[in-house]
Prior knowledge:
Elements: H1 2-58, H2 65-69, H3 87-90, H4 100-105, H5 112-115, E1 123-124, E2 136-137, E3 142-143, E4 154-161, E5 166-182, E6 185-199, E7 206-213, E8 228-237, E9 242-250, E10 258-264, E11 272-277, E12 287-291, E13 297-303, E14 308-313, E15 326-328, E16 334-342, E17 345-352, E18 362-366, E19 374-377, E20 380-381, H6 385-388, E21 395-401, E22 408-415, E23 425-436, E24 451-456, E25 461-462
Parallel strand pairs: 1-3, 20-24
Antiparallel strand pairs: 2-25, 4-5, 5-6, 6-7, 8-9, 9-10, 10-11, 12-13, 13-14, 14-15, 16-17, 17-18, 18-19, 21-22, 22-23, 23-24
Amino acid sequence: MSGNSASSGLRGFSGGYRYSLLTIVWTVVGFFLVAHLISLYSRKDNIHQQVSSDQLQVVHHDHPVVHELVRVEEESLRLPPPRKRSPRTSKRRSRKPIPLVEEFLDEKSPIRHLFFPSVKTAAFGPTKDMGNETSYYFPGKIWMDTEGNPIQAHGGGILHDEKSNTYYWYGEYKDGPTYRAHRKGPARVDIIGVGCYSSKDLWTWKNEGIVLGAEETNKTHDLHKSNVLERPKVIYNEKTEKYVMWMHIDDANYTKASVGVAISDSPTGPFEYLYSKRPHGFDSRDMTVFKDDDGVAYLIYSSEVNSVLHIGPLTEDYLDVTPVMKRVMVGQHREAPAIFKHQNTYYMVTSWCTGWAPNEALAHAAASIMGPWEKLGNPCIGGNKFFRLTTFLAQSTYVIPLPGVPGAFIFMADRWNPADLRDSRYVWLPLIIGGPADQPLEFSFSFPTWSRVSIYWHSKWRLP
Length: 464
């Protein structure tokens, strides 16, 4: 009896000891976890307050114009006063105001001029009497070429030809009065082809004409005017000395979902159309190409009904994809990829899939172009809340280095006008790499080591 009692007492003591030890361990763990979470939330709250000063510390100070580029500029939409109501309707309960995105999409909206200023009051370019505002960009206004015509290079990209030190801007050239059904909205213009513009300063653009024209008669051809040609991008292959164009090719109902390839001996064409295909056997819609420092080029395209981005290297001649492919941003429904590189880190800006309606952009970063890619958050700074949540009423298309300023780039975007795609506008803004990222890694509590991507709104700005 006494032996059993002693044994029971010992077991009780050991159990109590283990219980106390576990309590202490979990208390300590809980304390550090709470402290860590508090630290993270504190950092998160302070990021937006610190971002401007942190970016100024990261950006090189030997470029004084950069200080002006990172200045936060607010934008006030001057809405017209409410329309007068009749005595009968004034007694009724007032309706909710129409969302600004719907106003943007409505071609008969009374505030449409705020989104698409007219050519009489809001055009800029080398043929306009700009006075002291020569060489300034005016995002959302009508941009004229050297002949005084609106630039037609929508959804495009820039090629810097090192041999001639000339920039070439390729994009969808839209013209003519014909409209038809389109997946992004009520109507679109039949394709004319890919237009090309050349410039030495990224502001004065000469029209080099249509470098890849639409097919007028053969309805079975990929480039027949009733089909879809979008987002053309051109890269140069040093080994073959050829200029290679990749583009999104589709039919009127967006069921073909392919990429097209064309080739030329000259940056100003004419380009010879080669073929179309579904890369890696998957559907492909919004796409871009990226040429890395080592000469390897990559195709990045929205696939699997726009739910996933696919990334894969091209063959050495840039005329096809290799069998290698990675699925990234799975289930995130991103499109309009614009990819660039800074200090061995790859960055990308993408948009949601909301048709013609502008939406909130996201910035992403990766140590390898093949991923994994992490979210950095909304890159838009300035303007107003509506501007920031709609990427300044535009959609990303390309990013190019800002000449002579490390860590600074030009963000190229399109402000689509679904009622008249020829009148879609260009939104070029300064993009700066610097400051802490404002969104933690997806699968941990830590913040990424790479820097934040910031796109600053300016109603007008110029290059350094």
